[in-house]
């Protein structure tokens, strides 16, 4: 049998070992209940990814209930956990959504054209999902809308890009690299190129869809002249992942530099959005009119 002194030693040792455990449990409970965001498990970022055994739902098509009417899919860049570029309270994901809605309104008011938005709310979509929506809807055009950013505050104006395996300039390559980062979360690439995509890039120069992409890009630039500043008045090209659709004419429309104070104010204003929407919607309508008369 243990002596009274031995029992006291064991009891004291048990208490010494129990105290840190009790304190740790109490701190954990307090942190879960009263802790600041990010101090406990609340920092975990939840991202909705596509189901492995299915595809995301298709957006609503607005406009005349006639499947023979041309369909344009507008793609507001970024969204959800991915804000894109930003200046103060102005975020690229918010600017692009408002501009896309303005272009849709212009097209629907004029009639004769059907319109769908890849996202009509603040939600995240992977790049492949965006172009896939256009393919699944059998769209006639795909326009991805963005607002550029640069280290130089002097950089300003709108640009229009089409897909190519190489950038038409260092700036084009830089922009494509930045936009393609939308599918990278915590350093993990959520999607990767396949042999099919590589084939698309090799065949672009002979692609009917690519010819349509260049034509639409030229029309947008033409309609923008006199309505807003242009960063360059020539169609640019780069390996944008969001444009890799083999059968849908597709362009990426950089509406301005959100890092430039003047451009940011213009893009955030109703006047600016309407000017851009008027130019883009007119270019789209001219494109479809040409296709119908071909």
Output the CATH class name of the largest domain. Answer: Alpha Beta
- Percent helix, as a range, is 40-55%
Report strand order across the widest sheet. Answer: 4-1-5-10-6-9
Quick one: CATH superfamily of the largest domain?
A: Zn-dependent exopeptidases
H and E order = HEEEHEHEEHEEHHEEHH
| Low-confidence segments | 36-46, 182-190
The fraction of residues assigned to DSSP E strands is 5-15%
Remind me, CATH topology of the largest domain?
Aminopeptidase
Structural class: alpha/beta
Number of helices: 8
Describe the protein in words.
The protein is of the alpha/beta class and 294 residues long. The protein has 2 domains: 4-43, no CATH class; 71-293, Zn-dependent exopeptidases (Aminopeptidase), CATH 3.40.630.40. It is built from 8 helices and 10 strands. The chain has a 6-stranded mixed sheet, with helices on both faces. A two-stranded antiparallel sheet has the order 2-3. The longest helix is centred in the first third of the chain and has 31 residues, at 4-34. The chain is globular, with a radius of gyration of 26 Å. The N and C termini lie far apart (105 Å). Mean pLDDT is 81; it is low at 36-46 and 182-190.
What's this entry about, in short?
Helix content is 44%, strand content 14%.
What's the SSE blueprint?
Blueprint: H1 4-34, E1 71-76, E2 86-87, E3 90-91, H2 92-110, E4 114-117, H3 127-136, E5 141-148, E6 159-163, H4 170-180, E7 184-185, E8 188-189, H5 195-203, H6 208-224, E9 236-238, E10 250-257, H7 261-268, H8 270-293
Parallel strand pairs: 1-4, 1-5, 5-10, 6-9
Antiparallel strand pairs: 2-3, 6-10, 7-8
Helix pairs in contact: 2-8, 6-8, 7-8
């Amino acid at each position: 049998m243990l002596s009274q002194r031995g029992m006291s030693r064991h009891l004291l040792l048990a208490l010494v070992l129990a105290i840190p455990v009790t304190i740790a449990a109490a701190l954990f409970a307090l942190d879960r209940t009263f802790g600041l965001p990010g101090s406990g498990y609340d920092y975990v970022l939840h991202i909705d990814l596509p189901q492995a055994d299915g595809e995301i739902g298709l957006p609503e098509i607005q406009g005349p209930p006639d499947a023979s009417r041309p369909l344009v899919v507008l793609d507001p860049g970024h969204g959800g956990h991915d804000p894109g570029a930003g200046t103060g309270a102005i975020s690229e994901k918010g600017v692009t959504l408002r501009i896309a809605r303005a272009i849709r309104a212009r097209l629907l008011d004029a009639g004769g054209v059907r319109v769908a938005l890849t996202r009509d709310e603040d939600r995240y979509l992977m790049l492949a999902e965006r172009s896939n929506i256009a393919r699944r809807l059998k769209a006639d055009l795909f326009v991805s809308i963005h607002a550029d950013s640069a280290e130089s505050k002097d950089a300003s104006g709108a640009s229009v890009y089409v897909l190519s395996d190489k950038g038409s300039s260092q700036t084009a390559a830089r922009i494509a690299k930045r936009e393609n980062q939308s599918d990278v979360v915590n350093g993990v690439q959520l999607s990767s190129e396949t042999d099919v995509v590589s084939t698309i890039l090799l065949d672009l120069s002979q692609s009917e869809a690519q010819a349509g992409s260049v034509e639409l890009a030229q029309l947008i630039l033409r309609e923008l002249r006199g309505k807003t500043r242009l960063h360059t008045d020539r169609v640019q090209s780069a390996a944008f992942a969001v444009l890799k659709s083999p059968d849908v004419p597709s362009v990426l429309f950089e509406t301005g530099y959100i890092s430039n104070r003047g451009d940011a104010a213009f893009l955030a204003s109703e006047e600016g959005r309407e000017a851009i929407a008027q130019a883009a919607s007119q270019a789209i309508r001219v494109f479809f009119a040409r296709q119908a008369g071909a």
